[in-house]
């Protein structure tokens, strides 16, 4: 998943929970401008900790899985 797709997903989840950007940003401890950049795929760098906070407020966690589940590693 690229950052743009992740941003779109976060935006969709935020809207499903009826949260404004301001509300999600405040609960996540980031600025509304940073959240806006994340949602629009314009944020080039974001820490795992920050992403985890945003996703946590939305009720999700970061998960690591193989790109191709049919390939054994």
Walk me through what this model shows.
The mean pLDDT is 90. The radius of gyration is 13 Å and the shape is globular. The chain is built from four helices and no strands. It has helices spanning 3-16, 21-28, 32-39, 48-57. The chain has one domain: Orthogonal Bundle (434 Repressor (Amino-terminal Domain)). The chain is mainly alpha-helical and 73 residues long. Helix 2 (21-28) crosses helix 3 and helix 2 (21-28) packs across helix 4 (48-57).
Please supply descriptive tags for the structure shown above.
globular; about 55% helix; single chain; 4 helices; 434 Repressor (Amino-terminal Domain); about 70 residues; mainly alpha
What does the main sheet amount to? none
Which secondary-structure class do the elements indicate? mainly alpha
CATH architecture: Orthogonal Bundle
Which fold name is given in CATH as the topology? 434 Repressor (Amino-terminal Domain)
Estimate what percentage of residues fall within beta strands: under 5%
How do you describe this structure in short?
With 73 residues, the protein is mainly alpha-helical. Helix content is 55%, strand content 0%.
List the helices and strands and how they pair.
Elements: H1 3-16, H2 21-28, H3 32-39, H4 48-57
Helix pairs in contact: 2-3, 2-4
């Amino acid at each position: 998943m690229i950052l743009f797709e992740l941003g779109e997903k976060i935006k969709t989840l935020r809207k499903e929970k009826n949260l404004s950007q301001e509300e999600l940003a405040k609960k996540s401890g980031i600025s509304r401008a940073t959240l806006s950049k994340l949602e629009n795929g314009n944020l080039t760098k974001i820490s795992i900790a920050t992403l985890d906070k945003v996703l946590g407020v939305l009720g999700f966690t970061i998960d690591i899985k193989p790109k191709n589940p049919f390939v054994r590693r």
